[in-house]
Design goal:
Helix content: 40-55%
Radius of gyration: 34 Å
Number of strands: 22
Number of domains: 3
Shape: elongated
Oligomer: single chain
Strand content: 15-25%
Largest sheet: 7 strands, mixed
Strand order of the largest sheet: 10-22-21-20-11-18-19
Length: 683
């Protein structure tokens, strides 16, 4: 995608720094309860810096210095949290800005009530208006082609330079506003009202303007708010406990303790993780209509895939030559290649390529005097008429047999048995003849895309069941399913069969994903938990799905599932790390607070921190700086590796749980040494 921007570009960083201060507004920050508590702590310690005895006590000038340092650290903590969210949002806004450049003040040739076409601003077009677009003009708004066939440059939307064909009827009739018609003429029916175009929705989505928290994110927010409340109650009770044992704890220290105990790391990064998850999908040229769709992709149990164009290449290609009668394979290969020299279809090119693999290469120039006979639906054959009157043909077996019989020649006895063999294996046989003699058969078969078996094996490791849907007969479907390595298949599938499969899986408590591009796919796309619609498909399909693939690549669904899982794993990993961090902070702060009144707690000072002031400040500083250090991880995401849920849990507990415990011990001790060198440890 051409509109990708670097995560930490100068423009994004500058804007994020400014946004960090703007987001200090408590009216907005209150939506993040963890960081809101930190901001309240900052305000209180700021007041205590001005007047250390604001809440009673008899504190000297050194207390003011201590309070000031705590205030600065708390401010930095809030700013770092805001910065993480601003960086994630900034990347989306940079993408949106590049998208806006494709929205120019276009003019459209709109059909009036009188039937004539008149120029009007594209912004005035409404649903069901008819417009005419000729070669070289921009398509003014989203719509469906109702007349014509033309080549469209969609690079402004997809980033792909290769043009695509759009035409009336079928599943490739949808066009997007802001793209350019390169050839011919199209009559388009507008399918959106002003401000509702696909481009408008994309801009809103990548900016995060319409982003709502997902159910998982909301649940985690509630958990963080609950933990914050619990620790708030615990910290508030510490002061009377200290008073009971004839000790005192100043308010700034209590606030520092609270901020260190509450899950500030995940609280600061939670929103950024969600935004970055949607951003990763967008960078894959997939537009998710909501964060919920991305999150649901991470929990998918069943993946439904069409065969043609998804699992297979989409065109049947030559895979084998089968001679008949007394002819050899070499003879058959030569005649088959000659018959395909001027055949520019994928099937024809594949015959020539397979001939090269067999050692037969024939130059087209050798047959420039021959007459090319193109394939037609009536004859169902193609080939050449040579200069000496000899005919060479390839085509449907029954059509070739008819040509031979009309000339009074005999059909080889083994032709039918070999034809049946190819059909039984799910292939398509093409017969090849020269003059009145049939030389043999070309075995055309659906070619499974390279690497599909390995990709389905990865999905199986994720615990995802793959189901192939095809209109082919059961025998053909079974052959392709076995070769591709899918878990199950549905042959002779109709739209209602897909719906039935989705509902059956969902009734068993499973989440289902599917891809589609046709109007007949719309009901199933709407029913599926993750419906990936092709951008090349119909407006109905794009409206029904909750994701749209700009590249129109059905296999993209596999990547979307991986991105969804990466989002969930990243959120879980940083949550684990954040909570595990608290263990080291306990050993740093708790002994420091009560050491004066309970000397035996000194045994818990296993890090041998210089002083209780240094212990508190070191823990608080570490608590702040770990946030920006984890921003790259939140943006990039934790790498997902297909494995069982148990294996994944143990891996994350080892890396982020154990790592979350060890890292603060090292970090806090290093900060303590630095504070000692700077002379701040005994302030």
């Amino acid at each position: 995608m051409n509109r990708q921007s670097k995560t930490f570009s100068g423009a994004i960083m500058s804007r994020a720094i400014w946004e960090s201060f703007v987001k200090m507004d408590p009216r907005g920050l209150v939506r993040n309860p963890v960081m809101f508590v930190v901001e309240i702590g900052f305000v209180i310690t700021l007041l205590l810096t001005i007047d250390p005895n604001l809440f009673g006590g008899h504190y000297g000038p050194s207390e003011r210095s201590y309070n000031l340092i705590v205030t600065i650290i708390l401010l930095i903590t809030v700013l770092f949290g805001n910065f993480a969210e601003a960086v994630a949002e900034g990347r989306g806004k940079a993408q949106a800005e590049s998208l806006r450049k494709t929205k120019t003040d276009l003019l459209a040739n709109k059909k009036s009530d009188s039937g004539a076409y008149e120029q009007v601003p594209a912004s005035s077009l409404h649903r069901d208006d008819l417009v005419r677009v000729i070669a070289g003009e921009m398509i003014p708004a989203d719509g469906e082609v109702i007349e014509g066939l033309g080549s469209v440059d969609e690079s402004a939307i997809t980033g792909e330079s290769a043009p695509v064909i759009r035409g009336a009827g079928g599943d490739f009739s949808s066009v997007t506003g802001g793209t350019k018609l390169l050839s011919d003429e199209l009559i388009i029916r507008i399918t959106v009202d002003p401000g509702e175009s696909f481009l408008d929705k994309m801009i809103n989505l990548v900016e995060g303007a319409s982003r709502q928290k997902t159910p998982n994110e909301l649940a985690l927010s509630v958990l963080l708010a609950g933990l914050t409340l619990i620790f708030l109650i615990v910290v508030v009770t510490l002061e009377p406990m200290a008073h009971y044992v004839h000790g005192t704890i100043d308010v700034a220290t209590l606030i520092a303790l609270l901020v260190c105990l509450i899950p500030t790391t995940i609280g600061a990064l939670l929103s950024a993780i969600g935004i970055a998850g949607m951003d990763r999908v967008i960078r894959f040229n997939v537009i998710a209509k909501s964060g919920k769709a991305v999150e649901a992709a991470g929990d998918i149990n069943t993946l439904i895939l069409d065969k043609t164009g998804t699992i297979t290449i989409g065109n049947r290609l030559a895979s084998e030559f089968l001679p008949v009668g007394s002819h050899s394979e070499d003879e058959l290969v030569e005649i088959a290649v000659i018959s395909s020299l001027f055949d520019e279809t994928p099937e024809g090119r594949s015959v020539v390529d397979l001939g090269k693999d067999k050692g037969v290469t024939i130059a087209r120039e050798s047959y420039t005097s021959a007459e090319n006979v193109e394939f037609s639906a009536d004859t169902r054959v193609s080939g050449l008429n040579l200069a000496d009157g000899t005919i060479i043909r390839k085509g449907a077996v029954d059509a070739i047999k008819k040509l031979v019989q009309e000339k009074g020649a005999k059909v080889p006895g083994d032709l039918d048995s070999k034809t049946e063999h190819i059909a039984t294996e799910g292939g398509t046989p093409l017969a090849v003849m020269k003059g009145t003699d049939i030389y043999g058969l070309i075995y055309l078969k659906d070619i499974v895309k390279p690497g599909m078996r390995e990709r389905f094996a990865e999905l199986r490791k994720m615990g995802i069941k793959t189901v192939m849907c095809t209109g082919d007969n059961r025998l053909t479907a079974a052959t392709i399913a076995s070769e591709a390595g899918v878990d199950d298949f549905i042959a002779e599938a109709k739209p209602e069969d897909k719906m039935r499969l989705i509902r059956t899986e969902q009734e068993q408590g499973k989440l289902v994903a599917m891809s589609g591009d046709g109007t007949n796919d719309a009901p199933a796309l709407a029913q599926a938990d993750v419906g990936l619609a092709m951008n090349s498909g119909t407006a109905a399909a794009k409206e029904a799905g909750n994701m749209i693939d700009l590249d129109s690549d059905p296999t993209k669904l596999i990547e979307v599932v991986s991105i969804g899982k990466q989002l969930l794993i990243t959120r879980g990993a940083i949550t684990t790390f954040s909570i595990a961090n608290d263990v080291a902070k306990y050993f740093a702060i708790i002994p420091a607070i009560f050491l004066a009144v309970i000397p035996s707690l000194g045994a818990l000072n296993i890090m041998h921190l210089t002083s209780w002031h240094s212990a508190i400040l070191s823990a608080l500083i570490f608590n702040a700086i770990i946030i920006p250090l984890l921003i790259p991880l939140a943006m990039k995401g934790v790498k997902y590796r297909p494995m069982s849920a148990t294996g994944m849990l143990m891996r994350n507990l080892f890396i982020f749980g154990l790592g979350g415990v060890i890292t603060p011990f090292i970090g806090i001790k290093l900060i303590d040494l630095l504070l000692t060198v700077l002379g701040i440890a005994n302030i």
